[in-house]
């Protein structure tokens, strides 16, 4: 890190700060500039303690140099990670597609969706059994009954089941039915939950929190990796900005940015990322063109009757067309979808 | 809610939408404008289901009219709620002050802090025993040992202990030691945790998530209230914006805005809201002037050696001066601090 | 618009508001709900005056229904506008590419760039002669000398010259040399400048301000259209959000969103939109996949020596590869680049 | 600045970068860390050219150390600047209050406003004659007739006239009538306008752009100062964030943050900063408590009939009460309002 001293810091202050840095087990290099003195502190230390140096009166700011994450880093592992569950493959050259309804509502709704997305080329089936809802008065999911329906749909179609886990207490139940555990955006920094899925050993889709920085996102993945679970997919699903014409703002530049820094695969969720069904297919095509490792898309047999997220769900027909376009774009770039 | 039809919607489409609205148990009023038809749907319905009408092809947008929260609303309860724990009183004319270190680090560190903030006029003691940290490599708190130190500090000083709960599994442990349970900003939408503290019956400080809207914030409170726990304090601690010169952007207008809509008291946390110790005292004074019901401030005997949040912690002396100023501003407005 | 009355508004208040609405030349429909009364005000009025109704004590909020823009709207003109200058065609099925250096620095730098981008398939040449710079101490452009170099480059290559106008006083000078006038993001709401380019009659590239909403963006275009100039290209170049790993956050969903509402073509600037050269080619490909009508890309013979925006400029070789990829994606979707 | 090399940068790359830094006239210090090499470049250089080093392949990032502004800095001038026009004094211990209608609409409206705000203790009169409006169809101001009314109001009341200048071409006209020129938020980076008011020599109120960083804000002031005009007031009027319950988010922490860095006075505009009349008085009191050097408030004799900004305008009575409260808070802190 670089410690920038305030203007007018005396040699005694610089000397004192040098000792503080050395007390942290780091080596200090003092550089005297035209207006300010800076001290470069050299050593591998990522526990955040050093940032408290900013509280010293004589310090203007502290600039970290090392990335705060480690296991997630390309520098730790150069080749891309491929996350696998049944036929679903995400990363390492595979563009996996997970599709299905927001919530599991009934056997018929789920099976219709599952058959349709399978026919169109998806290899993963999404569907919420436990639903995190902004309002306590909204539909909260079918719970274990929903999980059973998901498992039955997998048995029929062979699609890998991807479903959200909301709290550590549910881990045994979820592990019984799901192939991939999803951490929702609201829980990206629910650290006990991250540790629980880390310990469970199932593949994990980790959604970016709507105001999480890239470092925070990668550090959340690091919590899972740190428990020995390396099957982690990063899912960009849009960030909260001043824009209100879309539900969230979906920054596709996250894909190449993350791929430069981490070996973990990057999934795009254009459904939550826009919140508007008519914007999902063009953004899915763009996600493929930008180089994503997978897509997660909400599909419902009758969106206008969905109990949640109807406005952003595709009908099976529109989804099939979307897949056709995405496949075309993928193969024009020498890649393979699904 | 108001359903705005697309331009060119035919009478048949309007008729069909009218029936859909009536199927939801609402009454429909059709208004034919110069360019568009809108349908006003009348009735008390807050479960979100109706928003899926936006997915209908013939609909341009759906505008909700009713606030989505109910029990938190001033319309449900006109008089302000006062949240109380030992001598700590927040709301209903009382400006309560909770102060102390970010993390409990040692007996000496905690007791020194507790005595100092008590002497300066605080009636609540903050201190984290379980710490949500962005990095898995950072100090995670003393856990139950920290809780014991907090309880001991309460026994000596009489300060009410306010400490964060991170996961539902900790509820029994926390209830044993704490007087007030805090839900951190990262967990504002951790619904199982909200329900757990709702059931526990202890007063709750609910921190606003860094990108939560006001409706989302009040709906999170509604989850707690809905379990029969009415002792909820709303804590504004800053939102994430493009500004980087402060850790977060602290919008004090939240105080009067919330007070117009809810009976729950509003606490300001200028420490997290700015992230910079020198900005805390002026923002605390401003919070009192804007009409807040309480303050939550980080104080550490030696900020530059803090294991977390050193850059935003006040020394005991600076905190005492801050309290003096806040008391002066409060009494100039006919209010009482502490 | 919909006027939502406060809870408890008396019949007399509703009556008074009804008259206020009628005084504005609108028809009022009163709808009495379970908790609130709303008044639908029918009529074509877009001058903003009605929003002052929100200042009435008895009014909770005012919800506009009509889009505030008119001439830019698809409802006014259904078929897409194609903006043309020499061989540059943007919109109406043509994906035009404008490329070149951020600033014109020298004859050699400009001609090298122009020849390279022409060879790779661009039909427009960008280059700033008058540079808006955040700091008064930064390079401000070669001014008229720069314009002369641009004109010379056009004479040699046939590329249409696209250059920024910063102030109405420069209009005569700019019109003399440029084929397309660019309004920079900082000037999106510089209304005298918008009117000046509206009067000048040259094609205009209007960049979105970094915190402009879609309505504000389209209303800025409306200022130009309102002077009778219909050759306006909307350029999305990224918005300012909490994200700092990229210079701006580039929301590609703007493309289909705008295309649904306006007949004006939409150009993407991945250079400013990311600020990082290595992210430009994937985002350009994604922009083509999402359906953009054109690209604007910074290219410099030697980015590390550029006097401005070096970090986001492509070398001629990387630009040529990017064009190859974009052409492939375009033709996979049945479109033609350049 | 600090140049952080990529991991794996070879000694030859470090050597080449060292020479590039020296070519810029800076001194280079190489520091070899455990994972990366950084090069500290020492010297006074603020022209932004060095940032193009980020475009070099072997560079990970460039961290600037020096503030980019100079004349605005406290390091250049330690004592606070007081900006003065007639009886209006802002800064250096004076809290000046500028009040009046958003737009000048008629002689009666303006004079009624002017007398009322004068009686309540304001010393500056605001009122727009040239109005920047988002829509070309909205009221654009009375233009020179409005300026004449403002001058007449000054002649009667002694209030200093503060009015907005929209374009350099108006400078002679504005200088004839106004005491203080205001640069609106939309024009904060309209550099030709900044230079024009810099040359005009009148005091300037410079409004922060809704997504301007602090450095950009201070650099905009620097454009004015750089022309020899030191009478510049910085006006914080709220930033654009994801929050929609208020028109903008008003970050009062800007006041102490700016006062630590610049000698220029800081004015708060709670009218635009909230957009809601009922939030203006508490935010004005908070602004005084946080230490602002002045207030700018919209007052209209009949807000519900205002041609612009009615929703955020105070009636004369509410303004008078607000002033009473602000005076009380100011004197409790040993300061004087007006």
TrEMBL record, chains A, B, C, D:
This is Phospho-2-dehydro-3-deoxyheptonate aldolase. It comes from Symmachiella dynata. GO terms for molecular function: 3-deoxy-7-phosphoheptulonate synthase activity; aldehyde-lyase activity. Keywords: Transferase. It comes from the Bacteria. Signal peptide: none annotated. Residues 87-326 form the DAHP synthetase I/KDSA domain. GO terms for biological process: aromatic amino acid family biosynthetic process. Its EC number is 2.5.1.54. InterPro entries: Aldolase_TIM, Class-I_DAHP_synthase, DAHP1/KDSA, DAHP_snth_FXD, DAHP_syn_2. Residues 1-66 form the DAHP synthase ferredoxin-like domain.
């Amino acid at each position: 890190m670089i410690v920038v001293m305030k203007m007018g810091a005396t040699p005694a202050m610089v000397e004192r700060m040098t000792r503080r840095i050395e007390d942290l087990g780091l080596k200090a290099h003092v550089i005297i500039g035209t207006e300010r003195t800076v001290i470069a502190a050299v050593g591998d230390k990522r526990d955040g303690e050093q940032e408290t140096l900013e509280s010293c009166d004589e310090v203007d700011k502290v600039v970290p140099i090392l990335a705060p994450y480690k296991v997630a880093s390309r520098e730790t592992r150069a080749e891309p990670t491929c996350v696998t569950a049944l036929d679903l493959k995400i990363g390492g050259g595979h563009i996996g597609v997970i599709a299905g309804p927001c919530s599991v509502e009934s056997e018929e709704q789920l099976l219709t969706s599952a058959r349709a997305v399978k026919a169109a080329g998806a290899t993963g089936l999404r569907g919420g059994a436990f639903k995190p809802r902004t309002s306590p008065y909204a539909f909260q999911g079918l719970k274990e009954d929903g999980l059973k329906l998901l498992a039955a749909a997998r048995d029929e179609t062979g699609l890998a089941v991807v479903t959200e886990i909301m709290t550590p207490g549910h881990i045994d139940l979820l592990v019984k039915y799901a192939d991939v555990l999803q951490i929702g955006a609201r829980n990206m920094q629910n650290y006990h939950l991250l540790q629980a899925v880390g310990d469970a050993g199932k593949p994990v889709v980790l959604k970016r929190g709507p105001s999480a920085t890239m470092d925070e996102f990668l550090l959340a993945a690091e919590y899972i990796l740190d428990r020995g679970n390396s099957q982690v997919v990063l899912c960009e699903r849009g960030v909260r900005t001043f824009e209100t014409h879309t539900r969230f703002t979906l920054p596709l530049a996250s894909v190449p940015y993350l791929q430069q820094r981490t070996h973990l695969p990057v999934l795009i969720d254009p459904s939550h990322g826009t919140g508007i069904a008519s914007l999902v297919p063009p953004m899915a095509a763009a996600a493929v063109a930008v180089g994503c490792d997978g897509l997660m898309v909400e599909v419902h047999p009758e969106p206008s009757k969905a109990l949640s997220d109807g406005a952003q769900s595709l009908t099976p027909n529109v989804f099939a067309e979307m897949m056709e376009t995405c496949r075309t774009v993928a193969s024009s770039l020498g890649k393979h979808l699904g």
